Amino acid sequence: MPKYVYDFTEGNKDLKDLLGGKGANLAEMTNLGLPVPPGFIITTDACRRFLEDGALPEGLEEEVSRHLAALEGQMGRRLGQADDPLLVSVRSGAKFSMPGMMETVLNIGLNDESVHGLAKQAGGNERFAWDSYRRLIQMFGKTVQNIDAELFDHALEELKDGRGDLDLEAADFRQLVETYKDIVRAQTGQDFPADPHQQMRMAVKAVFESWNAPRAILYRRQERIPADLGTAVNICSMVFGNCGMDSGTGVAFTRDPGSGHQGVYGDYLQNAQGEDVVAGIRNTMPLQELERIDKTVYDELMQIMEKLENHYRDLCDIEFTVERGKLWMLQTRVGKRTAGAAFRIAVQLVDQGLIDLDEAVTRVTGAQLAQLMFPRFAKDAETTKITTGMNASPGAAVGKAVFSSERAVELAGQGEAVILVRNETNPDDLSGMIAAQGVLTSRGGKTSHAAVVARGMGKTCVCGAEELEVSTKERRFTAPGGVVVSEGDVISIDGSSGAVYLGEVPVVASPVVEYFEGEGDTGDELVQAVHRIMSHADASRRLDVRANADNAEDAARARRFGAQGIGLCRTEHMFLGDRRQLVEDLVLAASPQEREAALAALEPLQKADFTEIFQAMEGLPVTIRLIDPPLHEFLPDYTELSVKVALAGEQADDKDRRLLAAVKRLHEQNPMLGLRGVRLGLVIPGLFAMQVRAIAEAAGAVPGARAEIMIPLVAAVQELESVRDEARAILAEAGVEALVGTMIEVPRAALTAGQIAEAAEFFSFGTNDLTQMTWGFSRDDVEAAFFSKYLELGVFGVSPFESLDRDGVGRLVRIAAEEGRKTRPDLKLGICGEHGGDPDSVHFCHQVGLDYVSCSPFRIPVARLEAGRAALAAPTDSGTR
Ligand code: ADP
Ligand code: MG
Ligand code: MG
To answer: Could you confirm whether 449 is annotated as catalytic?
Structure first.
């Protein structure tokens, strides 16, 4: 029988799969000799079984009893012992931290008898005992019994009647316990369970079940955390921060999660328990003040934080409690951080000798780099600042103020940019936070729910803007000076400075982008960190990174961003604008002479386009794709044209009439699968030849130019052969050397890659089309029509257009790469779909042995970094951090 329960002394930090992050780290801290209240962990394995079978696995309860008995022995008190009770917390803890997602119940073991025993333990502190009891009923009712939390909150508010929570006395809490019990009875039809063992059993089940709560599912999807991991449950003996002013509870980071700077960052709340710090019941004090309150505890905490940082070799966040002058550690983990802090911390740790550069590269992600490339607010813009809150998660966000998550989702669905404004957020606001450009709260510190979740999502957040009076009911807030912002008014928030502005503030490029552009201030600390990490990623990667660029300007930018060539230069835009006329002539050509004349007119224009690009790339390879889209895309719209012709009647232009006929003739039911790509080249004589001639002439005119001619939409080697022969002849005549290769974007091409490689000198995987055709998805139709349903159903965890589908599309890529290289060992392999800039897909490309990835210019730094990370075997999963 599997072992389902581990004592804290039995686990360690590397057992996160089995013990969850919280449990594994509680075990690690225990074994480091830190003061952790004793306890044990029920494994994720038990959870998975429970969720599969709908019942606790056999043997689990017995194993729990054994560990509980041992814990009782160690503590010298028993769960439910009336005169001297052991209390425990039941805490969820999955492999990846899911802030606020899962449920925790404190003070399990209290009932009408043991509450007196607890008071006795605390030297007759009745207030503390009844406060703990009412907290149990409240948390248990809310999380285990699914009772609306507002009922409890409301009862508490009513009892307080304007008083602060510290003004409440034992009798008040005692009364509250009765009220709470009534609420439970009214809501569930049953009494609050008085049996501590039953309390514990129910809480454990509730933790297991909360794995499948809708908001947990939503968070997992957002963070790409697999749905089948399950959560562990931690049973931890209670320590009490709520037994007087010499007690308290707090959270802290070993460094500033916003800047990465070392120092003391945390919040502390006296005479409080558990969630009080983040819930914002009272204003917390900065952790530094603990030094004044209790220097011994403060010094010990500082020592522990240093020990943790050196041990984990990374920024850690912690949760702790002080019980009557004694410090207890309740949680630690490698902390979430902003993108900028991730880069800074990685190089700081290198400089401290804690990690090497290889590891530093694995400590940052392409997604974080992409975030640093976001624009920010213009420094010299005219602004109306209305207040400043805490800079909880960086970025510049502009949008209409909304005061509920429902409204945020609704307006965002209509394409509006919104800023979610709340007093504080809670897990139910997740959907609104996802929908919003940014989040603004009036309460809570850098460790509040809003701050933690926004940082995790890379969403701009300003929190704790205390000067704002937010009325969610009236859907407006008031700022100092009587400024009123109502729903729909535009505001701008700066997550890097904490500033809140009225109206729309213009945004500018980030310093990191300016650095890539070669115009940045290289003395900037962040820029230096990015530079060091990028240099090492470049030195480590095997994949080349190229750009998708169709003009000289993009090509030049791509080079500044580090592109080693162009992997996809589309030629279709070269047929647009005032050149449409020439395309129309081509389509309407009634004789070979007319057709040749049209092509001859296009050729010098194309040559000029290519010349510019070759010049910009200065001898780096440029892969040019011959025309791909169906020709009707260049012709006027059918309906418009028919209306025009109909209105003109007898007077209608002859060309319009002929055009209309052509548009009708060329109309296709499935243009994506119609007359396009190589098929056009084979059907319209001279079209491809004209393009190849333009390429050859341009390459001949630019010294060092390296052209690679790419034929799109090939499905059979026979298609490629004739086009290739014609291209070879033209190149030979012009005395220009160029590779001739093909895209692999039709499943048949992947499956017959061994044959196709006979005629192709390179393959470039066009994974957009390959994904469409492998899944049978018409991209432009399906994404809006049913992808959200598919995501919900778990058909895929992320759209296959966003991240390459390894099992299906990836398998075709693998087959084509292997078989192509069998035929032609020096076959050059690349990818030019949008996946070329997606982190996970870049890792895949590294693993299957491609030579390069090609992506849009702005994604190039991300691809460079991820290619380096792939070579250093770093994980790609965003949920791992
Ligand atoms: P979350 O995952 O939401 O952070 P936790 O399980 O960490 O939930 O519990 C939240 C808070 O409850 C902790 O930060 C701590 O303050 C308090 N808590 C949990 N277990 C105990 C305990 N055994 N004794 C005292 N406080 C506890
Ligand atoms: Mg916690
Ligand atoms: Mg394509």
So the answer is: yes
